[in-house]
Amino acid sequence: MGWPYFGETFQLYTQNPNVFFSSREKRYGEIFKTHLLGYPCVMLASPEAARFVLVTHAHLFKPTYPRSKERMIGPCALFFHQGDYHTKLRKLVQSSLAPETLRRLVPAIDSAATAMLRSWDGRVLSTFHEMKKLSFDMGILTIFGGHLDKYRRDELKKNYFVVDKGYNSLPNKFPGTLYNKAIEARRRLRDILGEIMEERRHKGTTVDKDLLSSFVEWRDTKGNKLTDEQISDNIIGVLFAAQDTTASVLTWIVKYLHDDPKLLDAVKAEQMAIYESNGCGRQPLTWAQTRRMPLTHWVLLESLRMASIISFTFREAVADVEYEGYLIPKGWKVMPLFRNIHHNPKFFPDPHKFNPSRFEISPKPNTFLPFGNGVHSCPGNELAKLEILIFVHRLVTQYRFVVVGTDGSEVEYSPFPVPKLGLPVRLWRMPGV
């Protein structure tokens, strides 16, 4: 159980996650206990256990986050809840990310990726930090559509990144600390969002349905509506969910392609066929074309497996639960270990080798969980995939790139694992494109 009170938290945040989790599974088996972030925890490293917690017996395990993080995002965010409230919020989010909506977003995502790469041309920049900017812009687009003025967009971005910087800091309320600055920025975000909501209600229904309009216009059978607090918490929650995870995956994809020139050439050949069919960029990329990128899609999936950005998820037992002869006491945290499952050679042979071809055949059920499973699985996973496919298309068809100042083998945690320094890359536009 590690040190008193601190448990193994320090080891979790300083060790390579592959080493931290796999060494304990090797020593104790697929079910073991530890102490993290001030709580006793049960870790479960099998597909069957993950399904037990997240799907078949999900009612016995409520979503939970450390209190400081819940306060930062907002207690009304859907991923802190179960039951009717969670169900209605999830439906609203899913409806704003339906295929017909994503189809309409392709030109805007393509334009944003193109502009970001153009601004990078000839410079050495941190891939991860550039990807965070792109993911934030995509989150804003999804939430507000094209109905947000530049001033409000800039104010949201400025304050959001202060919150983001303090999110994983020590929860210290003293003035000047990262956490205190983040709390103050969080209040400003709430005020800005309140002004935007008031304007949206005054203007009425928008032609193109975005997430904010879905929240503002929703009514239940009794005419009840969502409060401003509920809407602002869920908007900030969507921004958090959409940003670092997608940015991390994009960073790893750039690294994996850089490290394997033959794979990069194969992905480039697939994408150049689409690029040339569009008159070498004179015609826009289409939704249908993003559905016809099999190799690039396998690279995306293998990157999700290898990097396992979300190593685990937190749940809390709402009652004493017995599993496989073990008692999980009420109040203990329960952590299905996605990373261990993704790196288990029983399900993925030679798991530490980057091999996109393994996804030519679908993985066994419950063995590939990059977006979670059950009612709390990520509702924005298709948006994230679309964003990644479009970015890769523009990157490999129009640019060359090289990692600078590091071989990319060292990993840092923010808290998601990313190559050291966010993978500094020099990028330049290919002549004639």
TrEMBL record:
<feature type="binding site" description="axial binding residue">
    <location>
        <position position="378"/>
    </location>
    <ligand>
        <name>heme</name>
    </ligand>
</feature>
<dbReference type="GO" id="GO:0016020">
    <property type="term" value="C:membrane"/>
</dbReference>
<keyword id="KW-0479">Metal-binding</keyword>
<keyword id="KW-1133">Transmembrane helix</keyword>
<keyword id="KW-0408">Iron</keyword>
<dbReference type="GO" id="GO:0016125">
    <property type="term" value="P:sterol metabolic process"/>
</dbReference>
<comment type="similarity">
    <text>Belongs to the cytochrome P450 family.</text>
</comment>
<keyword id="KW-0812">Transmembrane</keyword>
<protein>
    <recommendedName>
        <fullName>(+)-abscisic acid 8'-hydroxylase</fullName>
        <ecNumber>1.14.14.137</ecNumber>
    </recommendedName>
</protein>
<dbReference type="InterPro" id="IPR017972">
    <property type="entry name" value="Cyt_P450_CS"/>
</dbReference>
<dbReference type="GO" id="GO:0010295">
    <property type="term" value="F:(+)-abscisic acid 8'-hydroxylase activity"/>
</dbReference>
<comment type="function">
    <text>Involved in the oxidative degradation of abscisic acid.</text>
</comment>
<dbReference type="InterPro" id="IPR002401">
    <property type="entry name" value="Cyt_P450_E_grp-I"/>
</dbReference>
<keyword id="KW-0472">Membrane</keyword>
<dbReference type="InterPro" id="IPR036396">
    <property type="entry name" value="Cyt_P450_sf"/>
</dbReference>
<keyword id="KW-0560">Oxidoreductase</keyword>
<comment type="pathway">
    <text>Plant hormone degradation; abscisic acid degradation.</text>
</comment>
<dbReference type="GO" id="GO:0020037">
    <property type="term" value="F:heme binding"/>
</dbReference>
<dbReference type="GO" id="GO:0005506">
    <property type="term" value="F:iron ion binding"/>
</dbReference>
<keyword id="KW-0349">Heme</keyword>
<dbReference type="Pfam" id="PF00067">
    <property type="entry name" value="p450"/>
</dbReference>
<dbReference type="InterPro" id="IPR001128">
    <property type="entry name" value="Cyt_P450"/>
</dbReference>
<keyword id="KW-0503">Monooxygenase</keyword>
